[in-house]
Request: fold
Amino acid sequence: MITFGPVPSRRLGQSLGINNIPGDKICTYACIYCQVGATRHYTLERASYYSPEQILAAVEEHLSKLQAVPDYLTFVPNGEPTLDIHLKESIRLLMQSGIPIAVITNASLLGDAAVRDALSLADWVSVKVDANDETVWKKINRPHPKLTFEGYKEGLLTFASSYKGILATETLMVDGVNDGAELLQHNASLIATINPSRAYLSIPTRPPAMRSVKKPDEEAINRAYQIYTDAGLHCEMLLGFEGSDTGFTGDAREDILNMSAVHPIREETMGEILRKNRADSSLPDQLVREKEIREVIYQDKKFWIRNFTRAEGIGLA
Reply:
C-alpha cells in the first residue's frame, strides 16, 4: 500500500499519493486535529521502511494503470515522511518520471542537515507552521518530548533560506487554540520571515484525532486571512471539500484501503471510487464488517477511515 489516488488536492491538482511510512501512524507529532488519527509510534529516529526501489516500482505500476498523468507525485504518508531515511534516494529515482515531486512535512526534523538535503530535491515542499508560540505549539502539535520549539524554528528558517523549489506553509486553525488575533499576528510574522510562495490557512474538514477539535467561526477565519494578507503574505484559504474526482486502478478494494490509510474518504468520493472501478456498492459495508475500515460522521458528513487494530496511541480522546 505504497501509493494511492490520484486524489484531488486543493494545492496540487491531481496528486498521486506516496505512503512511504508503512503500517500504523509513525510521527514526531501527535497533532490534535490529525486526519490520520492517533500517533501510535512516537519517534524522532529516522529509519528504513520501504527501499527506494520498492517505492519506484510501486509508483511506476500505479502510473501504468492510470488514464492520465497526475500533476504531482506527493509524499504524504500516515506519519511524518522525513522519518524515512531513504527519502532522498526515493525522490532521486522518481525524478526520472518527469512528474513534479511534492513533500508535505510537519517541519519538525528540519534541524537535521540530511533531512534538508533530501527535501532540497523536491519541486514543492509544504511546511507546517501552526503557532509561533511554544505553549500553543505544544498544545496543538503535541511534539515529541525531545523536540524543542527553538530547534523547530531554527530548522524551519535554515531550510527556507536555502531551498530553491516552491515553498508553501500551512497553518491549520482550531477553535480556541491558535485562532486568536495576537497568536495569528505572531505566526504571520514568522511565516513572513520564511517568505513562502503561498501561505495556506486551513480548518478541520475531516475527522480529527481528538473529538474536541472544532473549526473556527467565520469571523475568526476572515480575521486570520486579513492578518496574513496585511503581513504581506500571499495567503490562500483551504476551507472546503476538494471534490470527488479521484484516480482509480481497477481494483476498488485496494484503492479504498490505500487511500483510507492516509486520507479519510468522504461519501461522495467513495461513490466515485466504486463507480469508476465498477465495483458493487456493498463493498464499503463489507470492508467495515471485515474491520479493514470504519465509518465515522464528522460535521454531518460520512467518512471511511482505515481501521488500524493495534494498541491505541497518543491522540485519542
About this structure: The first helix runs from residue 52 to 64.
